[in-house]
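User: Earlier you gave me the apo prediction for this protein. Now I'd like the version with adenosine-5'-triphosphate bound, so I can compare the two side by side. Same sequence as before, with the ligand SMILES added.
Assistant: Got it. Here's the input I'm using:
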Amino acid sequence: MPSMAPLSSGNKNGDGNGNVPGRGNGVPFGGHWGPPESTSATPSAANEAVGKRKATTLLPQTRVTKRQALLNQRRALPIASVESELVNHVKKNETLVVIGETGSGKTTQLPQFLHSAGFCKGGMMVAITQPRRVAAITVATRVAEEMGVEVGQEVGYSIRFEDCTSPSTQLKYMTDGMLLREALLDPLLSRYSLVVIDEAHERTIHTDVLFGLLKGVQKRRQAASTATKSSKKKAATTGVALKDLQNLLTTSKTPLEKKNSALKLVIHLEEIPGDILLFLTGQEEIESMERLLKERASHLSPKVPKLLVVPIYAALPSEQQMRVFQPAPDGTRKVILATNIAETSLTIPGIRYVIDPGLVKARAYNPRTGVESLEVVPVSKAQARQRSGRAGRERPGKCFRLYTEDLYRKLEDSTVPEIKRCNLANVVLQLKAFGIDDVLGFDFMDKPSRIAIVKSLEHLYSLGALTDEGKQC
Ligand SMILES: Nc1ncnc2c1ncn2[C@@H]1O[C@H](COP(=O)(O)OP(=O)(O)OP(=O)(O)O)[C@@H](O)[C@H]1O
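And here is the structure of the complex with adenosine-5'-triphosphate:
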């Protein structure tokens, strides 16, 4: 069973480190893959131009249907030029790693290529996992639109408490948690010809558990191919360097100063029209920024465009999260205040500017004390790139990083997998439910420390969730 994900390992034609042929650092197939480096890799505290891509040449709207316009957009995406090459790699490899710049078309196009290549024949489906509900919904909706079908028919999505699929569904976008649930009921995932693990570089717990499970499924099915992704493990930069960044962004500026610096960018109307996406660390920060922005906006001169402030964070109900996708009224600039929920997968129409203060709230866990906490920490380079990639998806855009180029260089290359910084009780229970009793021997891509696993086993035993033999009660 093939399954795929960006940035991963295991390609027979690659270098053994998960890189497929092409230009350096694992970017596949060379040539024009994604917008130029300026989309993300050029760090700067100053403005960063993003998203310069091949121009989409559209005939006047009066002469083309919306479908044709969408088709033209699809053809102009960088991934379009490597369709057959990609499909061939999927056919030849059990596990394939697909790496591409943000916005190049991995999430929306690759599944359609697989569909055209016959992976959905005979009642089989292609599953595409997403770490977040909102991404599963919006991407499925977009792909359905591109394919000219109703969402829920050939293209559907499945998230907790909402199953928008039907017997005719062939491409199924779903949260990784939902695929894990399905694996509980059908350990061979027999309805899927292929699983695509999207945004695998985020290394959420669900993604990591899926990686391990899919390896087992592959072995058992002894079938076609999988494409997984393993973000490359690079030597960590020094703790001091990271502390520098954190200090600069949190300690040396009071929160209000920090907000004001972002605020200046948000409402400083030097830039041409276009919506703004500002990354903040959590609900509280978003709410206070929302109040501050609204207050400032109320004092703007009537000549200045209006400001519409829209928040998005995980605890908001889905319908409210969807407000970020509604266009701002004419003459109004939309400012979206988001946590890292908006960091990957999403294309929010109208976003021209991204403001990245460089911080994120992340889980941390001390296995010795058993204490789990949420800490504000610097983003990784991969996260910074993802953030900048939210601009320039429909037209050129800019990313404002509120930290220096020097500090950018000292960021970790990728985020520490969540599985290495959380209480493992849930993971252990989940594995036990899959019938995997030897949790210490499970094929984790990045094994959590022995002490963390043992502590979780002890904890579950003391709660009465495990028997003396270590089995699920
Ligand atoms: N909902 C949408 N509305 C408008 N354009 C969209 C939408 N979704 C995708 N697109 C267009 O399709 C392009 C490809 O998006 P896609 O999500 O497939 O890229 P990606 O390579 O998966 O990006 P990322 O790595 O950021 O997830 C975007 O750059 C954008 O131009």
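For your comparison, keep in mind: The chain is about 35% helix and 15% strand.
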